[in-house]
TrEMBL record:
Protein name stated in the entry: Uncharacterized protein
Keywords associated with the record: Membrane, Transmembrane, Transmembrane helix
Species annotation: Halomicrobium zhouii
Transmembrane parts of this sequence: 21-40, 60-83, 95-118, 138-166
Length: 175
């Protein structure tokens, strides 16, 4: 990205189109991740509790809304001049790798910090299951934890590749 052009456009050199591309890419990336979560864990009804209900359908709505917002945040982060200066030329591969790293970071924050900040009621149960996992032979939380992690990797890969594709096809977003 040309730093002079970035300064002309304002904060982080970001245009509304870039944030829109992030929203769309995040939403699209939330779809395959959502299928993994729906069929590999029972997390979607848990996400619905943010809206005060326990429903797979509402869980999908909450999940896709969160995925879109995280996509917009990705657009903000990758537009930051320090990130742009870190890699000589951004292409699909670079955005995909950044997306995977971003997805893994979201998973780590989602599982380790956010539940305690928001005092979610299922945190105590999840913590108890993890402790039980360490001491016993049961695989109780390993499969859902693996699906959760894989879902975030898939989310990041689709987000990065999708964002790169939108950037390449939109001359106004090309840096």
């Amino acid at each position: 990205m040309d730093h002079a052009r970035a300064e002309e456009r304002g904060l982080l050199g970001l245009e509304a189109r870039a944030v829109g591309a992030g929203l769309v890419s995040g939403f699209a990336a939330g779809l395959p991740m959502g299928f993994l979560l729906q069929f590999g864990t029972d997390l979607l009804p848990v996400l619905a509790t943010i809206a005060g209900v326990s429903s797979v359908a509402v869980g999908w709505v909450v999940h896709l809304a969160i995925a879109a917002v995280y996509g917009a945040l990705f657009a903000v982060i990758v537009a930051y001049p320090a990130v742009q200066g870190f890699i000589a030329e951004f292409g699909v591969r670079e955005y995909t790798l950044l997306g995977i790293t971003y997805g893994i970071t979201i998973a780590a924050v989602s599982i380790s910090i956010l539940p305690f900040i928001f005092e979610l009621p299922w945190v105590a149960n999840a913590a108890a299951e993890q402790l039980a996992l360490v001491s016993g032979p049961s695989f109780g939380g390993l499969v859902p934890a693996g699906v959760f992690a894989a879902g975030h990797v898939v989310y990041g890969a689709v987000l990065g590749a999708g964002y790169a594709t939108v950037k390449e096809r939109s001359p106004a977003l090309a840096g």
